[in-house]
Amino acid sequence: xxxxxxxxxxxxxxxxxxxxxxxxxxxxxxxxxxxxxxxxxxxxxxxxxxxxxxxxxxxxxxxxxxxxxxxxxxxxxxxxxxxxxxxxxxxxxxxxxxxxxxxxxxxxxxxxxxxxxxxxxxxxxxxxxxxxxxxxxxxxxxxxxxxxxxxxxxxxxxxxxxxxxxxxxxxxxxxxxxxxxxxxxxxxxxxxxxxxxxxxxxxxxxxxxxxxxxxxxxxxxxxxxxxxxxxxxxxxxxxxxxxxxxxxxxxxxxxxxxxxxxxxxxxxxxxxxxxxxxxxxxxxxxxxxxxxxxxxxxxxxxxxxxxxxxxxxxxxxxxxxxxxxxxxxxxxxxxxxxxxxxxxxxxxxxxxxxxxxxxxxxxxxxxxxxxxxxxxxxxxxxxxxxxxxxxxxx
Length: 394
Ligand SMILES: Cc1cc2nc3c(=O)[nH]c(=O)nc-3n(C[C@H](O)[C@H](O)[C@H](O)COP(=O)(O)OP(=O)(O)OC[C@H]3O[C@@H](n4cnc5c(N)ncnc54)[C@H](O)[C@@H]3O)c2cc1C
Fold this sequence. Notes:
The chain has helices at residues 7-20, 35-47, 67-79, 84-87, 91-104, 107-118, 233-248, 251-267, 279-308, 314-337, 356-369, 374-385; strands at 124-127, 143-147, 150-157, 168-174, 185-191, 197-202, 211-222, 226-227, 269-270, 273-274. It is 46% helix and 14% strand.
């Protein structure tokens, strides 16, 4: 899907990738604080491939929104095998918090947190889910008691990705317990080194601990860390979630993976026949290709709406559900085509791509759940997108 209307710009992106692309940390590298990652992030920032439309007074590149440029950048990075996750590992900070602060933050909050986040100096985690509040997030019970010019937070968060590496957490707390469920919630920025915070890692089936339990006991945070009005954090939280869902379902990740799958199926043979020539596997591959193309066109539609200042509506609601299922299915096909080699994992001499297909298959299953499960996405599409009757509430 090449757009030739800006060949010079596209060439500029290719030149950047040719010069610096090898500095991109591998997708399997999960450490967020290394000097290499910071250097890479700052290179992207100074060349306008990160924080591109964030105003320069907040440390961004300050470019005007431009659909063609955005598509060219996404396509060229994907074609070079540099996925979204390699571009910016701290998704919670750059893709979720920065746009949320731009929309809801005070001038002081924007100045204080956006530049350091874009430079990779401040790492964020997202403290929404609790043991009793996941899909039904408004059931959250972590308390935020006002004490003079501070909020005193007590409660527990769970599944908090990267909390063990984060400097800050954007967190939902209940500040008005007497208000209706959605009204009494506030969105607050919590320093992770504040006294009273304990982070306990949770293991996943990938063998890694990427998320955590976070216990908060009388954690004191200044009131000026509240984003938006006190008790009106639900709106702020949902804006951040919309950005998360868009980032999680980004079709450029699927594009990079799909290319790698085509290469795998072209290279690998069974009984002298290339896997791509097997009619059953080729059929599955083509279905994924059609799905991918649909997602990429949908993405162009969303970008067009954004540039025009229109709401993308339903187009945006399908991204998380479809995009996350798609990347999972790409890995699933890779595992199937590899037959008995497909189950090898963790250092076997016969594993392919360093076991990345297996790791991605397991990790990406989590992405179908995180940021709102597939079932919840379907409810959103049905109720808000298609105007169908609301699900009966217990
Ligand atoms: C990899 C990963 C990373 C995550 N990172 C974070 C993070 O950084 N910060 C954070 O706050 N949270 C994070 N989460 C948590 C995530 O947001 C929740 O897991 C998710 O919202 C679901 O909540 P739950 O786990 O409590 O499941 P539940 O809400 O208990 O759901 C259990 C099952 O019931 C289904 N279900 C529930 N309600 C309905 C309904 N109304 N209609 C139909 N089906 C329904 C769900 O789809 C699911 O299948 C992460 C999760 C994962 C897997």
